[in-house]
Amino acid sequence: MTDNLTTDELRETIVHHEWNQFQHTNNEGGRAACQGNWPVFHQMRLAQFLTWERPLLSSYAADLDEADHVGRNLVTEKYGRMMASTAPDDFAKNIEPYIPRLTESRVSRQEQVIAQQVAWAADFRSRYPKLGEAMRVLTTAEDTPTTTSFETYLRGELGTYSDMTFDLYEAMIRERADTTPQHNITEETLLNTVQLGGFSTLDEAEAAQR
């Protein structure tokens, strides 16, 4: 149960839960180096979850628990869904038949969220080019068999969310987009990332990049 946890404890619990699922994700060619890098995994995932409020965190924590209960691995599934772009033949044969199929409505709504976040990421990269250069390539059109874009990664992740979690996530993105000025969640996430890495501001982190 997560009800007795503080919000910060809940975030940490989610990151650890994802890490445990990540340890059971099989990669073609053997175990990936990043599967042994807890500090970077923790920094990157916590930076994202610091932008989430309690209801969304609780819903996603429930998704992870339910996945364990029914024998799903949401981290494995996320990477599998990305292969629809990076390895489409393999995806169609070995992955798509074994993962939940999304409705047309859900896919359409996800694409609206993705378009907003890609626009935010592009805006961030235009203002912080050095930090942007360290990010994933931006769009699915840039995917290769060995390179997964920000857009494709996001599409893979959103596809693993339950309907309730996606509803809350979509509402969060819409709320940020409807404010003036907009609250760029990529910028918020990257600020959290560099602060967890010891910098005070994005400008400071940008200046420190070679």
TrEMBL record:
Pfam family, one: DUF4125
Source domain of life: Bacteria
Protein name: DUF4125 domain-containing protein
Naturally occurring in which organism (per UniProt): Bifidobacterium breve DSM 20213 = JCM 1192
